[in-house]
Amino acid sequence: MQPVTPGIWTHLGQRARVWPGRNWPLGATWSPESTNFAVYSPNATECWVCLFDDDGVETRHQLTERSLGIWHGALPDVRPGTRYGYRVDGPWDPADGLRFNPHKLLLDPYALATAGTVTPKPALFGYDMADPTLRDEQDSAPYTARSVVVDPSFDWEGEVPMRRRWRDTVIYELHVKGFTQLHDRVPEEQRGTYAGLGSPAVVEYLRDLGVTAVELLPVHQFFSEPALLARGTVNYWGYNTISYFSPDAGYSSAGDQGGQVNEFKQMVKSLHAAGIEVILDVVYNHTAEGGSLGPTISFRGLDDRGFYKRVKPTVDPETGAETFDDTYWDVTGCGNTVDSNDPLALRLILDSLRYWVTEMHVDGFRFDLMSALTRTGYDIDMSCRLLVAIGQDPVLRHVKLIAEPWDASMDGYLVGRMPPPWVEWNDQYRDEIRDFWRNHSSGNSTVATRLAGSSDLYADDGRSAYNSINFVTAHDGFTVRDLVTYEAKHNEANGEDNRDGTDNNRSWNLGHEGESDDDALVAVRRRQAANIMATLCLSNGVPMITAGDERGRTQRGNNNAYCQDNEISWVDWSPDDAWLDVYQITKTALQLRREHPALRQRHWFEGRPTIRGGPKDLAWLHPSGREMTADDWHDPDLRTIGMFVSGAPLRAPGRHGEQQVDKSFVLWFNANWLPTTISLPENDWVQTGEVVLSTDFRLPVGTQVKAGDRVALGRRTVVVIREV
Predict the structure, then answer these.
(1) Per residue in 118-130, pLDDT tens?
(2) Is 658 among the catalytic positions?
(3) Which of 289, 368, 407, 424 is an active site residue?
(4) Sign of the C-alpha dihedral, residues 400, 404, 406, 407?
(5) Does the N-terminal or the C-terminal CB of the chain have fewer CB atoms within 10 Å?
């Protein structure tokens, strides 16, 4: 490669139009004097930064400085809000993973804001990218996506991170647009935006429910896949990122010229003021450029060979020589896989994470398809560069780190295997609790393990129950209402002939598919939904609620609504069809959890006393009033389980070493299709109790009970009794 130099001066006193600038930080760094541009493209031979005025007229400035593979330069008089992009030239050799094309305007991977859209010409998809005659034509359809120069200043008024403990955390997974698009108490111009999510009515709703953290579906700038655009739909969920530093402008009421950045910050500030943390669902495992026939938007045009993983090279059996194979290695199901072992890809991920923590004040991250990022070469590696770097980083190791511990491959299932300080989405909890309430459980022993924190997954390596993110639904799959209303998926609206989405729903429609006007049937469904929500909120571990489940949100049986940017996905805030009884049960369960440390303990239950002569910290009760025996755990007809939790005292001391004393509880989970009589055990420690949560209308809140009483439980009910 030829060396890059500024060239030759033509006369004395000459001033370079582009100042040398510096090779750090990457991206566009604004100051009143100048804006520094730095972009990594190690194999390029030429690079231009291109500025656009308000009429879209482009002015190109060639960058003549390159160091460590980074092209850089500074330009004076560039205002915040200026739109820009890069053009780079270099070898066109797709077979060798090199796809440089100066006809393509590329987004800055480090841009702090992104404006416009990408709508590639459909006719160009499916062409042979190796054909050099198509280089000038490649994806050359007009599009308006531009990076934006941003002034990062914002008055946080001295805000500091909350760093709420995991055991005190309740997560609420929501979509920024879908949560407020139909909210009548949010100003119309703010509905579906960051401002709407941070509005007083929404913040108060979350706080009143008992939520301590919102987990936002992807808000990094993303674009819809060409196949979706071709059939008139869009990527609603947002798992198609292209700019890892830019808040998506589609959720901004302040426009796309940088106003989205401050609007996002103000949303975070408002939620924090209410004691609610912000967790981002992040998609570093693949990008919106898709497979090799997808659009070139940014990374592919800058460093295609370095940024994306390729399949294993072919090896000559005689010489042992390896031959590069340009085929993308895809364990994400989205066409490409980011190579987190590549030094600059790794740097981008870490820089992005730190930016969102330090500059945008978010409190943590949920990593989509984390297993795809944990590979050294092609194999899962718990000592891979990314995990080691995050674990050693003084900023990142102290934020909330949640793994979706699987990817699209057969070997990528890592539930129970992520190292500290990571916590995990626990799909085994989801499946077991769904099965229990539809009477398909493999036995109460596994149910009890899930209720107590999944020690089989997390206790053996010293982790705690809070390493389990417990959930029964998430953005993908049925809502809780649909779990009790549909047994089969109904995804016809997605335009894929109902082939998409899982068939393993573990749902039960109680004898009738779909919504019903039968009041008795609807009442049972609502009780089942309340049972599921109460179970989730009162299990040991960290509960995650999907937005709207607490009020009966339905997707009309669609279990893969990723392309439904409409009423199928949006939360309906009208009271007409809301399951407000489910809301009240959810709120009550979260209040009990919040007010009683016995229901959110730090240490594992041990099944033995916490004080000499005291009761066991946890005892599992048979409906007859005795403790469960080995035979009971294997009784296929036993569908009722009691969970005694002692609060006198707790095993863990308080912050200053003080002994913590709380009320004791008995939680009864009755999945039987028949009413069940339970006996409250005679004991030396708890003599009287009061029902504090109930889905059984015959046993209302406030009912007083005594040790030795026989109590009738209605079929399919949850009853929580607190010591008086």
Answers:
(1) 665 544 443 334 4
(2) no
(3) 368
(4) negative
(5) N
